[in-house]
Design goal:
With about 150 residues, the protein is mainly α. It has one domain: Cytochrome c/b562 (Four Helix Bundle (Hemerythrin (Met), subunit A)), CATH 1.20.120. The chain has 6 helices and no strands.
Amino acid sequence: MRKTMFILSGIVVGSSLGVVAQHGDPIAQRQNLMKNNQEQVRLLTGMARGQTAFDAARAKAALQAIERNAEQVPALFPAGSHQGKTAALPVIWERKADFDARSAKLAQDAKAAQTRITDQAGLQAVIQPVGQNCGGCHEVYRKKES
């Protein structure tokens, strides 16, 4: 019994340390999250354009991922996390309420889109607002690639 408790305690402590290590670098976390969003949007766009076979379940799963990611975005931009290798512009922290509201809108639109996908035409109709949310935020809050 004692040995089992010791092992379980070690697992809990080890897991907690892993979480702390992950939370230690918000820049890397948000870059990974944004890359995941890009993959999801790429899949959805491919389906909407007929470049990839339409699959309602995969489309809904992609939108669910975007929704979850959007909900996490505000926490990944804590004060002081503008230092380092990041494309995030300082205006994020100057207009944090607007930035957070845009993340909430993306999550809301991605959630609403999930219920309206039954075919490729339905996907085409719902992907545009989701993509516009992403692009609109990048236009204001992300450095332009040169």
